[in-house]
Design brief:
This protein is flat. It has 70 residues and is an alpha+beta fold. The longest helix has 20 residues. Strands 1, 2, 3 and 4 form a four-stranded antiparallel sheet that branches. It has one helix and four strands; from the N terminus they run E-E-E-E-H.
Length: 70
């Protein structure tokens, strides 16, 4: 079975139904995308402040890069 080459990325966005006008409000979410597409709603982490969302996305990106480096 051939191995899939998925490009995983993380998108920070305003949660549906929220304004996103206050970076301290829990209006933000991080979505894990495979080849630019959300494959599973379980891959959305919500109720975050903007700083929390940025931290999570950065942490996951770093772990992904470390895993790929070996």
């Amino acid at each position: 079975m051939p191995e899939e080459n998925n490009n995983v990325s993380y998108e920070i966005r305003v949660s549906k139904g929220r304004t996103g006008t206050d970076p301290e409000a829990p209006d933000w979410e991080v979505a894990e995308l495979e080849n630019g597409v959300l494959k599973d709603n379980a891959d959305i982490y919500d109720n975050l402040t903007l700083a929390e969302a940025e931290h999570i996305a950065g942490m996951w990106t770093k772990k992904k890069e470390e895993a790929e480096a070996g």
